[in-house]
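S1.2 Input.
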Amino acid sequence: MKGAPAMDLDTSKAWGQASATVSANKEVLVALAGVFFFLPSLALALFFPQPEPPAGTEPKQLLEMMGAFYGQIAPYMAAATLIQVLGQLSVLTLTAQAGRATVGDAIRAAAGGLLPYLGAQLLVVLAAMVVFGVVAMLGAASVALAVVAGLLVLIAAVWAAIRLSLIPVVIAVEGQRSPVAVLRRSWELTRGNAGRILLFVVILALAVLVISVVASAVVGIVLALVGGAETARIGGSVIAALVGAGFTVYTTICFAAIHAQLAGNAGADQAVFD
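S1.3 Output.
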């Protein structure tokens, strides 16, 4: 049996709704973004700076160096990621229950959504491992075949990531707790609109990248002149964490607006939190 016709997504409308919601709830969102998005990113950047490879380092040595570095900080990255996911689920819950849930209520509800989120992500990882295992087997037979298969897998991975981009929203807004049901619901909602969502995310990411690079460069130059290289590094980390926190807030609320459209629940242009 064929499913219901796919809803047409208006990303401009989603952006407008998200911007209005952010403007109407600046104080609450600044507090949540500071705790859940800004501080974890800044802590990782300050306490675990990426190692600078010596001049003339060969690619193999560079890979080994970076592998050792990320292996060392993996537990801290996992903890920071969990905190940020909790923040995203909290923001989504507040957006969905505007005027009916306090910040404390939203955080408690978000904590209950962490396990379903992790379960859904685990299923995605297991599926990816199977696919990459097949590509590795092809690589053993033919390098050319492996390259082609690898490119196709990369394209499929991006497409699948977009189709599953509503996982946090389905958990927080619809209250789904079954990882399989969460994956199925996100896949169903994004049907026919993956291209629009991908274009929207790419444009937003590029805009944020430009802002981050320009702001970090300007602040870095000024601080390097005033306080030296270490001061410039810290300032650059602060700017990057600030821009990243703002990007996370906007994209999270944008995806809530996208979900509302695709689920046929688009209502007010903004949500006002308690």
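S1.4 Remarks. The first helix runs from residue 11 to 24.
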